[in-house]
């Protein structure tokens, strides 16, 4: 395969990795927002007294919900979100490593092309 074709292929792969990276970064940002929202709800729940009533929105209606169940749901959601954040962090790390390897490959190919061009006039 010629160097120009290899460079084109590597550049296309690099662009795909950049797109994938931006998608995963967006997912990470959404998870951060959800984490913050649920932590705020947990703080609010901590201030409740046993006499307070908790409602859950189901469609357009508010339905009474048991405090313990509501707190448990929020804690479960927080655990899930934290697990997803760890998973997405792993994806980010993996994509960043692949991106760095692809960048190094592109630099190597570009160097080889430059060396080839420098040798061509001399021949």
From TrEMBL:
Keywords: Chaperone, Coiled coil. Residues 78-105 form a coiled coil. It comes from Schizophyllum amplum. GO terms for molecular function: protein-folding chaperone binding; unfolded protein binding. The keyword Chaperone applies. GO terms for biological process: chaperone-mediated protein complex assembly; protein folding. This is Prefoldin. Belongs to the prefoldin subunit beta family. One of its GO terms (cellular component) is prefoldin complex. Pfam families: Prefoldin_2 (PF01920). InterPro entries: PFD_beta-like, Prefoldin.
